[in-house]
Amino acid sequence: MSELPPCPECASTFTYEDGTQLVCPECAHEWTPGAVDASDASDERVVKDAHGTVLADGDSVTVIKDLKVKGSSLVVKVGTRVKNIRLVDGDHDIDCRIDGIGAMKLKSEFVKKA
């Protein structure tokens, strides 16, 4: 019996082969044996603005499109500058505070780095 590597997600030793992929029965993670080493090197997520510039925590951004605030009649106008952003996981990947509106989450595709 050949020795299979443990699952990179949950470290389970009960992995099995399914064609060209390895499968973990405990967490249902699937991966190819050679891809595990390459994915460890680029584990960090990169968030880019509308023009492709990489964003980081603490950056200032400018809104490039009028954005309606859900559940309110307020609108974030184009050109609004947002300071000290925080990057988070999810669909709306920027967490920020906008003067006059309050705490909000924005999508990176509607901002540019200031």
Automatic annotation (TrEMBL):
<protein>
    <submittedName>
        <fullName>Protein PhnA</fullName>
    </submittedName>
</protein>
<dbReference type="InterPro" id="IPR013987">
    <property type="entry name" value="YjdM_N"/>
</dbReference>
<feature type="domain" description="Protein YjdM C-terminal">
    <location>
        <begin position="47"/>
        <end position="114"/>
    </location>
</feature>
<dbReference type="Pfam" id="PF08274">
    <property type="entry name" value="Zn_Ribbon_YjdM"/>
</dbReference>
<comment type="similarity">
    <text>Belongs to the YjdM family.</text>
</comment>
<dbReference type="InterPro" id="IPR013988">
    <property type="entry name" value="YjdM_C"/>
</dbReference>
<dbReference type="Pfam" id="PF03831">
    <property type="entry name" value="YjdM"/>
</dbReference>
<feature type="domain" description="Protein YjdM N-terminal">
    <location>
        <begin position="3"/>
        <end position="32"/>
    </location>
</feature>
<dbReference type="InterPro" id="IPR004624">
    <property type="entry name" value="YjdM"/>
</dbReference>
